[in-house]
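Case study 2.
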Amino acid sequence: MSTETSASTDPTKAKSTAGMPAAASDSFLATTRGKLTLLLLCAVAFLDFIDASIVNIALPAIQEDLGLSNQNLQWVPSGYLLTYGGLMLLGGRAADLLGRRRVLIVGTVVFSASSLIGGFAQTSEVLIAGRLAQGVGASMMLPAALSILTTSFSDGPDRNKALGAWAGTGAFASAAGVFFGGVLTEGPGWRWVMFVNVPVCLLVLPAIPKLLPNDHRRTSWQGFDIAGTLLATGGLILMVYGLVKAPEQGWSDTRTVAELGIAACLLIAFVINEARSRNPLMPLSIFRVKGLAAANITQFVAMSGFLAMFFFVTLYVQGIMGYSEIKAGASFLPVTVGVGMAAGIAQALIARVGTRPLIVGGALVASVGVWMLSRVPVDGSYLSDLLPGLMVMSFGLGFVFVGVATAANAGVPADKAGLAAALMNTAQQLGGAFGLAVLSAVATSKTTHQLAHGHDRATAYTDGFQQALLVGAFFLAGAAVVALFVANSHGEET
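Prediction:
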């Protein structure tokens, strides 16, 4: 059976059958159904993005309650990242081939059930298993939801607004996760950073079949690219695992070299397999879309700096400034405001200037903001030493998220929208893992050196954070350079 869906059966092309406007000139977003659809898809994005950061402030409470070692504790945040990034490509292609609505429903069920299991966990093994399963669910939810968005809102203004809302939600959730994690941990307890997902999923699940058309696709796995699936999944999971473990094991350690080397070999074999396969998991023809590869590389490099920034600033405000969980979380609230404002401005500017200037400018602004943060002293003040850098960085973050989301989906055929969404989000997760691995090594090296030379712990750790944030600023400047090769899309209809 063909993997392509004809126009006569594709609900994204026959919108009138699903209560959507039939005429291309009509605005789906102007309808009540369109607004509710966008709200639903953004709720899915919020769930998936916030779970990457909401547990961070809860980690000390989790460690104390369940008696986790430092080695096992890192798998509470990293377990989610491992399966989320490792299975994203499979989730995106499955959405294209098996039906986006179907994959979104299955992913949401898995995500909700695993959140419940993690919240009730009495041992570290059960909690980590819950986080791994959450990543599996998210790897299905996110590419399915984004591909539904890009195929439902097809005209220029509608797509610009929808992608702007999506990207703004993602950036907002990344910052808000730290705040909500602090509020929940200091309030009802750390278990609620897991439980909080369940009621949201229970609201999302019944809305999916009511708002989204049933895009029937292939119902059989016959002819599915099994070899490509195994190679891609194995390579990506091993790559993320190697990056997560590298700071602990050492970059020159035999295990690290072997893990990353084998991962690279598996991914090279995957590309060779895709070039020869009749039904590839990732049709290489997708890279003929102008600027797609550059958009994904930009995402990778930028997220290497962004996610590491949140990590080290959180450590600084708790470990050096002595903030409580809720106060540490509240310190990121201005970031959510800045991101929201920047996303709205970016959404309005895309039609005028295109995506390339937004991404380049946003990455440079963010680089300046992170550089400002890299100058935090041991006796730092929030208003003078943190807030200015956080606000500058937040505006850059909003511009980059909106610009990359639009550029990475511009010109992508509807039947490959799930794959394009998966590629973008895989780049994001791998970039985050890579940035944390590299910058953690930088911070640890600087801190160890300072301790060996007689500096007190607060000074040594602050120096390590400063060094890591400085390198993060260089990552963001590098993203601006890569973005020069991104297609300058104005959000035209594709």
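Residues 32-214 form a domain with the Growth Hormone; Chain: A; fold (CATH 1.20.1250.20).
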